[in-house]
Hints:
Elements: H1 7-11, H2 19-33, H3 42-58, H4 61-70, E1 88-90, E2 93-94, H5 95-106, E3 127-133, H6 135-140, E4 142-153, E5 169-170, E6 179-186, E7 189-196, E8 205-206, E9 219-230, E10 239-242, E11 258-264, E12 271-273, E13 276-284, H7 285-290, E14 292-298, E15 301-307, E16 315-319, E17 335-342, H8 349-360, H9 368-381
Parallel strand pairs: 3-11, 13-17
Antiparallel strand pairs: 1-2, 4-9, 5-8, 6-7, 10-11, 12-13, 14-15, 16-17
Amino acid sequence: xxxxxxxxxxxxxxxxxxxxxxxxxxxxxxxxxxxxxxxxNKEAEAKFKEVNEAYEVLSDSAKKSRYDQFGHAGVxxxxxxxxxxxxxxxxxxxxxxxxxxxxxxxxGGFGGSSRSNPNAPRRGADVDVSVTxxxxxxCKGCEKDVAVSSMEACPDCGxxxxxxxxxxxxxxxxxxxGQVRVSxxxxxxxxxxxxxxxxxxxxGKIIETPCPKCHGGGRVRNSSTVHxxxxxxxxxxxxxAMSGRGDHGLNGGSSGDLIVNVNVRPxxxxxxxxxxxxxxxxxxxxxxxxxxxxxxxxxxxKVKYNIPEGFQPETVVRLRGKGVQRINSRGRGDQYVKVxxxxxxxxxxxxxxxxxxxxxxxxxxxxxxxxxxFDTLKxxxxxGKDES
Length: 388
């Protein structure tokens, strides 16, 4: 059996990582190696399976506890045993035996952990998908179809795991209790302990003829297309959940959620700051001096704006309520328009002479800021004579 990598290493997190950190790392890795984003890439497919296997263990508190104590042998009874099964870890020693000894002697199990009920309902895992939309689609909201790969109830056996025409049987070893009592020789003498039934794995039931489609697991992986409604106002890097659209649960447990991660393409005109929109609109020197009616783009279409005479460069104009829709709210942000005066380049001689003639006709009152600057400079520094 090939040596497995450490699950924490697979997800790129430390052993002290929180549940949220593990979940975030899983989403990033699953997105990176998802088969839909790496068609025909066998290496990516293997990585995707490895990431899912690691998350299945580290997202389950009971499995994570056993993995932290015993490594892969704590969660995979066949690991290191050449497929012999039975929970053997090293040198044929059964970690379950050690746990039973401490549980029987101290009442708390080895390491303070308790056994989880294998028949208890288990919620299905969340499934992550990514969708890329335009800036305008993010502002207005849109609908998309996304490809989803998830675990669903096996259609052949209805989730029981037993082949058609057969049924799940009560385990004859434990009588359906899931546990058996055994005598064990320990350093403290012979002790009677209760341990998980090795034949049924603690379930109290066995499947004599497993379903050939799901191999007794009761679930199969299925690819489907899900219609997704993306809410207006969502931003790049944000995500939302669709309840019950993830992996099918086990033992009657609820299904996980479908987590839709949204990527927004940059827009050539608009930029976003929170729920506000910003854009630059260039005007000519003559428009700034004389005033004019200009056209301003918004996400709702074009609007008219009157530039007054003597409009100053880089003035910011606020258009109320022309920003992004606030998620799950009626309110909207604002749009801010920075009006940029474009200075003409490569003037010919006639244009330069006309501009110099125009400049000579101006007086100090028409350049109030310029005059005030040189007056202040002269007053404070004793110089700053306007050489022009």
